[in-house]
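Predict structure. Chain length: 135.
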Amino acid sequence: MNHWLMKSEPDCFSWDDLVSKGKAEWDGVRNHLAQMHMKAMKIGDRALFYHSNIGLEVVGIMEIVGEAAPDSTDDTGRWMAVHVAPVEKLPRPVTLKTMKADPALKDMVMLRQSRLSVSPVGAAEYAHILRLGGL
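Prediction complete.
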């Protein structure tokens, strides 16, 4: 199983929105590197749900339930999307400030390429973030 971090602006699509829907297409990703990461996702992979712009924190865990397929919001047919489902909300959100200050996360892709909306997360980093979040 691989691990990922996926960002969404909570005023556009939040953790609560995902929980309410039960399953959702993770669409609108228009960065080539982020698209490569999404194409590498497999059913059963886990992803950290990160609220960007507002909150700046990891708030929950999602599961990839549908692999890369054409993005329904893309009229050009160039971009892909995956489907995700909520797994668990973190008891304590893990803030960007906390992650940046933690030596165990110093090599995390998201911290080195902060504008990337979808990025891989190492197994040790993933487990560490879950511990910081109270799991």
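Summary: The mean pLDDT is 97.
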